[in-house]
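Technical note accompanying the year-one report. For the benefit of new consortium partners, we illustrate the data format agreed upon in the data management plan: each record pairs a sequence with a C-alpha cell string. No post-processing was applied to the example shown here.
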Amino acid sequence: MFCYRRKKYCIFLCFLLIATSLNDDKKDDPRKTKGYINIITRAEVPVVHDDVIDQVVEKADKEPKIQLKRPAIAAKLENHADFGEIDGINGASMELIKKEMKDLAEKNKGALKIVHRFHIPPVEYNVELKDFIFPVGMILAGTVASQSKYRDFIPIDRPEGSAEVTHVDDVLQYSLIPGLFVFDALDKEKHHPIDQFFLMSISSGLTALQVRKLKSYLKKERPDGGNNSFPSGHTALAFIGAQMIYKEFKDSNPLIAYSGYATASTVGILRMVNNRHWFSDIVAGAGIAMLSTELAYWIYFPVRNFIADEMNLLLDNYFIVTPVFNTDHVGLQVNLYF
C-alpha cells in the first residue's frame, strides 16, 4: 500500500534507487531525458558574494565559447539555477564552469557548492478511445458466439476425450511476458522497463480477476467434457504480453510489435487442437487481455505522475547529494532530512 507520509517516501526512494538506472545527461536538460530517475546538477550559493561572482565571470570571459554577463550569472546563481538553464552553457563550456565552480567552492570555504538532486521525470500518455473498440468487440463476439451453435465455427481436428496432442501451449503462454523485456534490449521501447513492469502487473491483475470470475460464474463445458471453458486463461495470459509488445514497439519496430500477436494466436490455436477450448473461448480471452492492458495504461500513468511530482517535491527539500572538495580529501556528502 502506498503511504503518503514523507518519511516513508525516503525509505521507498532508497530501494528504488538500487533497482533503477540513473541517467546523468550533461548535454541536455535532464528533465527531458528518458531515465527513470535523473540527476540534476546545480550551483547552490547560500550567500552570493561579489568576489565569487567576479571570479566566475572572469574565468568565463577567458573562454570564447562562453558568453556570460555578470548580471545574468549573478541572477542565475542567486536563484539556484540548474546548469542547463544558464544561457550559453552547454557541453564542454558547462564542464569548464563546473570545474571552476568546484575550485571556487574550495577557495571560498563553501560559499559556492555543487549539489546533485534526483528528479523523476513525468511521462506523457494520451488515452485514445479507439484503442478500446476492438478489444470490447472481441469480448462481445466471443460471449455471443459461446451461447450459440457458432461457438466453434472454425473446423479443428480434435482428439477424442481429454487426450492432449501437445503441451507447447502450457509453456508458450508465459513466453511473451519475459519476451517484452528481451525486446527492450534489442530495440527502442516506448516506456522505461520499470514502468512496463507496473503496467504488466496491473494488466495481469485485471485479466486474472475477470477470467476467474467468468469461469466460476458461467461454468461453460469444455470440448473434452471438462468445466470452466469460457474464457480461455492460457490465451488471455499470452495476449497480455502481445498487447504490451505492440504498444511499446509499434512506433519503433512494427515487426517486433506484431510478432507477439502471432505467438499469442498460436497459443489459442493449440488450446483448440488439444480439445480444451472452443473458438469463442479464445476470442473472448484475447479480448479481455487486450482490454485489461489498455485499462492498465489508462490507470497507471496519472497515478505514476502524481507520485513523481510528490517525490520531486520531497527530493528538492529533503534529499541532497553534495560532492565535498577541500585540501585534505574529496568525498560525497548525502543529506537525508526527516
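Partners are asked to follow this layout when depositing records. The radius of gyration is 28 Å.
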